[in-house]
User: Which sequence fits this backbone?
């Protein structure tokens, strides 16, 4: 084990700022990437469902 | 007889080069790769912060290496894969190959940003500078511009076939930059340190090496998962007029 207590862990022997800025940006970008891709899937499926419904209605009218 | 069997085998593989057969396959694979990515990341982070000791010269700042090196490797490997898929698209004219190339680009760009950013964060406390215009750093920055150019070129052209051709050409031309990045530390005397891991020897303690390896696998699994997710979206977008897609989505829920 490297650390005696949590504050020692966060300080990282004086390198905390650099280390947390590194891991932090990675976590942030990955999080944004996953959220954006998932949201796009939701939107696309939603649009396709509406399209399918509209098409079915048109067929009914004819 | 054997040739017929081989042909059958080839056909069963080529089957997945059509979007219709690939879509359900991607659906099944995504949770597995994402699950593996999460498990490996948790193990890797635990090892990074609680198992490996601080470096006797650099102290704790070297822990950045466990994301810096995988990100830098992925930034190059993803570019090579992207160019390979672009090449496959040109030779076989398979649109799925173009979708794969397009799906890889943003993740590649993200890992390039991470490689540059973490390099800067590691460089300041260790070598006393955020940035130098040495060969390794400059060629990696060029890689980022290649990714950004590729992404904006695709976004700028509406027709998918023309976008695939123009961006594919850029990907193929830009591939010469990858060996330049990789060998820059041996070709030029630079600030960036040389490779610690080469195919015949490793100048690294075993537990550090294993930690790095776990992180590299985590990055790989994540890349496969997110790229499949993006390709799946692209298939929905491009195949919205097909009945199989409506049926496929109907099956899901």
Assistant:
């Amino acid at each position: 084990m490297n650390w005696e207590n949590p504050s020692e862990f966060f300080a990282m022997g004086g390198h905390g700022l650099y280390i947390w800025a590194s891991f932090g940006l990675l976590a942030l970008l990955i999080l944004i990437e996953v959220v954006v891709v998932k949201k796009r899937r939701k939107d696309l499926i939603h649009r396709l469902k509406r399209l399918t419904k509209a098409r079915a209605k048109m067929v009914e009218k004819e | 007889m054997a040739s017929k069997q081989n042909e059958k085998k080839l056909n069963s593989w080529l089957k997945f080069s059509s979007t219709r057969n690939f879509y359900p396959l991607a659906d099944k694979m995504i949770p597995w790769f994402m699950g593996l990515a999460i498990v490996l990341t948790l193990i890797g982070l635990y090892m990074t912060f609680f198992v490996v000791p601080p470096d006797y010269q650099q102290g704790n700042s070297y822990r950045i290496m466990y994301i810096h090196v995988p990100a830098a490797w992925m930034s190059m490997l993803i570019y090579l894969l992207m160019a390979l898929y672009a090449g496959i698209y040109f030779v076989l004219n398979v649109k799925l190959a173009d979708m794969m190339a397009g799906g890889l680009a943003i993740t590649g760009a993200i890992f390039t940003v991470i490689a540059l950013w973490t390099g800067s964060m590691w460089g300041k406390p260790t070598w006393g500078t955020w940035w130098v215009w040495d060969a390794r750093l400059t060629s990696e920055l060029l890689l980022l511009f290649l990714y950004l150019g590729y992404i904006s070129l695709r976004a700028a052209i509406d027709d998918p076939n023309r976008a695939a051709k123009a961006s594919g050409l850029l990907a193929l031309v830009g591939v010469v930059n990858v060996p330049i990045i990789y060998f820059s530390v041996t070709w030029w005397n630079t600030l960036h340190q040389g490779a610690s891991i080469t195919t015949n020897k490793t100048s690294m303690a075993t537990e550090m090496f294993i930690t790095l390896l776990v992180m590299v696998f985590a990055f790989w699994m994540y890349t496969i998962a997110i790229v499949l997710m993006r390709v799946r979206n692209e298939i929905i977008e491009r195949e919205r007029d097909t009945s199989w897609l409506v049926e496929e989505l109907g099956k899901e829920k």
User: Anything to note?
Assistant: Chain A has a mean pLDDT of 91. Chain A has one domain: 6-61.
